[in-house]
């Protein structure tokens, strides 16, 4: 079965940062849109899984590398394909190219299907997912990071309540919302003086409307690690690497 799914994106003003470049946050939103449409292309999106399998897809990991950021009004093309299918997860790669075919940034993601009744992970062969899909090799050869940094209350930056606008079709906090919470720990001055080159996020547990999250940050040499907790429960871990402009 055909693996590739492609579509074009127009970088709008609302997608751009202060320097009229595609913001890192919106680039990750683009990857989520690509994944959602890709699973629809495979006739395996969350609407189908919910109706036919009593399950939904959830992201467990996202890893993004930036070569170059497109600019406001640019038209870029995204391509997504499956890299591997394991018993309980699907691994994909999403590439974004400029009009010359050069890769601007690319992302790797792991997705699992969870049961809507007990919220436990389902095996891929128990949900609607094509069994004859040919996998392809991607650009990324790096493994996901082991994010094990220890955080103290001194590393806490702020607390954030989850509101109804943060909740998606799966009735939990949307993945991009966590990325926004993380990026809100960085000042405009930092973002004007530094360029994000890599961002990786691991989604550990779900959260819902009304819960309050604590966001932690620890600075390293040209790297920042993050932790989001709800009470003492870990929700998200992430790492960001950057270069100074």
Task: Explain the overall architecture.
This protein has 245 residues and is an alpha+beta fold. The chain has 2 domains: 1-141, Hotdog Thioesterase (Thiol Ester Dehydrase, Chain A, Roll); 145-245, Hotdog Thioesterase (Thiol Ester Dehydrase, Chain A), CATH 3.10.129.10. Helices cover 17% and strands 40% of the residues. The protein has 4 helices and 11 strands; from the N terminus they run βααββββββααββββ. The protein has helices at residues 24-41, 46-53, 175-183, 188-193; strands spanning 5-10, 55-66, 75-85, 90-97, 103-115, 121-122, 156-161, 194-203, 212-220, 223-230, 233-244. Strands 1, 2, 3, 4, 5, 6, 7, 8, 9, 10 and 11 form an 11-stranded antiparallel sheet that branches. α1 (24-41) packs antiparallel against α3 (175-183). 32% of the residues are buried. The model has no long low-confidence stretch (mean pLDDT 96).
Helix and strand layout, with pairings?
Layout: E1 5-10, H1 24-41, H2 46-53, E2 55-66, E3 75-85, E4 90-97, E5 103-115, E6 121-122, E7 156-161, H3 175-183, H4 188-193, E8 194-203, E9 212-220, E10 223-230, E11 233-244
Antiparallel strand pairs: 1-3, 2-5, 2-8, 3-4, 4-5, 5-6, 7-9, 8-11, 9-10, 10-11
Helix pairs in contact: 1-3
